[in-house]
Amino acid sequence: MSEETMLNSLNIPIRYKKHLLMQSLSTSSTDSHIKKQIATLKINNKKLLPHWCKQLIMFPIQNICNKNTNNPDVSIIVGGKEFDFLNLSNTSKNIELNNFENIINYLLFERYFLHKRALFTRLPFSYNLIPPFFRNMIRKTNLKKKIDIDNDINTSINTNSNKALKNKFRFPTWPVEPSVDVLRYLLEKALEIKTGRKSNHWPNNNKCCFIATHDMETETSFRNISVIREIEKRYNFNSSWNVLSNKYNLNFKKLNILVKDGCEIGIHGYNHDGKLSFLNKKGVAKRLNHAKTTFARFKPTSFRSPILMRNESFLKELSNYFECDSSVPDTDILSPLAKRSGCCTVFPFMINNMVEVPLTLPQDYRLIYTLNLNPNKMLKLWKEKVNYIYNVGGIINILTHPDDYLTGNERYLRVYERLLHYISKKEDVYHDTISNVARGWKEKMYSK
C-alpha cells in the first residue's frame, strides 16, 4: 500500500504524507476463508480517544484473515510509543491485516452490504404512475417485512449503547456511525504529533460546515420556493436546489431568481423513476446529457441521485459528468436500497476526480413517512445530530423536499425554520452552496 493511497482514503492533504511512518500490512494468502468479519477498534492510549465518540467502535471488514485461523473476528489495536498509526494487529497475534486503504474503502464505498435492485425500478413504467394510495400501502408492507422499528431503530443519538452493539451487531449504527471518522481522527492526531500542526478542514478556521439542499420532486415545489427562501435569508443561508429535467413543467423564471439570490441549481436526474443508477453507460449518458442540456444556462456542477439510488460503478461514472455528488448518506435505514447503508463519515471524500459530499442529517421523508416521527421528535433528532457533527468538525448536510407533502407543508416548514435558527446560533460554522464547498475541499486536498 502506498502512502498516497492511504491518505486519499481519508482525504488527508497529500503534502503531509512525508510526515507519517507507515508500513504495508497484508495477508500471507489472498484466499480468505470468509467474505466478511467484524472488527473492534481498541485504543490503548486514552489520550487518543475522541471526546465526541462514546460508543464501542465495531465495523465489518473483508479479506484480512489468514485461511488457517480459527478466529474470524479481530481487534484492531492502536498504540505504540511513537504512535505508529498503522501498528494494527489482532489480540491473538495470529492474524495480519490487509492494507489499510481497503479497510476504509470497504466502508466508504458501501461494499459491506449486498446491493439489490428494488422491484419498483424494474417496472416497465415509472412507479410515479401508480396511485399514491397504493404506493403507500406497498411501502408500509415492505417496511414491516424489513424491520421491527420499535425494537431495532434508535431515534436518539444518546440511546446507542456498547451493550446493544455487543449483543446484536448492527451496521451502520443510526443516526450516527462514527467508524471512519474515528479512524480519521486518529490519523490526524498522528499528523499533529509528527508535525505539530492541527488539522483545519474549513475556511477561516471554522469548526464545521453547513449546507442546505432541496430536491424538487413535484411541480408543487416551485410554488414553495419563495417561502423557503424567505426563511433561509432570515438566517443568512443560501441553498442548493436539485431539479429534474423531464418530470414536470419547469419554471425557469423562479430558478433564475434563485441563482441571482446566491443559490445553486443542481441536477436531480431525468424523471425520478429510480432506474438511473442501474442503466448501462449509454443509458446513463442519455439521461444526464438531457438534464445538463436542459439546465445548461445554470452551468450545473452538482448532482443527487433520485431516491438516493446508487452503487459504486454508477458513482464512478458520475465523476465524468459532475464536480460533486451528494447521493450517499453517512448512515441510513429502511431505504429502498438496503435495510442499513451509508459511507460512515460526515466528511467529504473523493470518487475519482469528484467530491462526494455525504448527506449527514436524516432527510425529511425518512423521518416523516418511514419512521412516522412528529415535528418535535424530528427537531430533537436533527439537533442531536447537528451537535454531534459540530463536535466532530464535519459537514452538516440536510436534504429537504419543498413539495407540499413534505417541507413545503407549513407543519414541517416550521421544523425546518427552527433547525436553521438553531444552527445559526452556533459559532464558527462555515456555510455555502454545495459546489463551492466541494471546490474548496478539493483545493485543500491537493494543495502542495
Write the layout of secondary structure elements.
Blueprint lengths: L2 H8 L26 E7 L14 E4 L12 E5 L21 H9 L23 H15 L2 H4 L9 H6 L11 H17 L12 E9 L3 H4 L1 H10 L5 E4 L8 H9 L3 E4 L13 H14 L7 E2 L8 H7 L5 E2 L6 E2 L6 E2 L7 E3 L2 E3 L7 H7 L4 H18 L2 E6 L9 H15 L4 E3 L2 H12 L3
Helix pairs in contact: 1-2, 13-14
- How many domains, in number, for the residues? 2
User: According to CATH, what is the class of the largest domain?
Assistant: Alpha Beta
Give the radius of gyration: 22 Å
Percentage beta strand:
5-15%
Backbone shape: globular
What is the name of the CATH topology of the largest domain? TIM Barrel
Task: Enumerate how many helices there are, as a single number.
Answer: 15
Query: Helix share of residues?
Result: 25-40%
User: What's the multimeric state?
Assistant: single chain
Residue stretches low in confidence (pLDDT < 50, at least 5 long) are 1-6, 14-34, 65-72, 80-98
Task: Describe this structure as you would to a colleague.
The model is unreliable at 1-6, 14-34, 65-72 and 80-98 (pLDDT under 50). This protein has 15 helices and 14 strands. The two termini are 21 Å apart. By secondary structure, it is α/β, with parallel strands linked by helices. Helix content is 35%, strand content 12%. It has two domains: 3-108, no CATH class; 207-445, TIM Barrel (Alpha-Beta Barrel), CATH 3.20.20.
A few lines on this structure:
The chain is an alpha/beta fold and 448 residues long. It contains 15 helices and 14 strands.
Characteristic terms for this protein:
448 residues; alpha/beta; TIM Barrel; 2 domains; 15 helices; disordered N terminus
